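Q: Here's a chain of 114 amino acids. Please give me its 3D structure as tokens.
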Amino acid sequence: VQLQASGGGLVQAGGSLRLSCAASGSIFRDNAMGWHRQAPGKQRELVADITNGGSTRYSDSVKGRFTISRDNAKNMVYLQMNSLKPEDTAVYYCYAQIGTRTYWGQGTQVTVSS
């Protein structure tokens, strides 16, 4: 399984970005996909994830601002990020949970200036 993330960049506080992640390889129907992030000097943390059935969960810090979605036919997952804050600055990693295995993408940098 390979994951390719894109869409990061530099944005001012209050702005928006949309991250995309394309999955290829042996993607099975029963999986969850999502995003973690890691800021400098901090541990990697869950941002949001979504099952193939559409169930979602979000970290408290992004609820109401970020929306995760997926296109099962295309094996894509998206993260729409609105009302961005400087504390959202981090490297965002796409991941896929298939059975007991977790696969990670290469990460995309999101920088929010104040």
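Q: Can you summarize the key feature?
A: The first strand starts at residue 2 and ends at 6.
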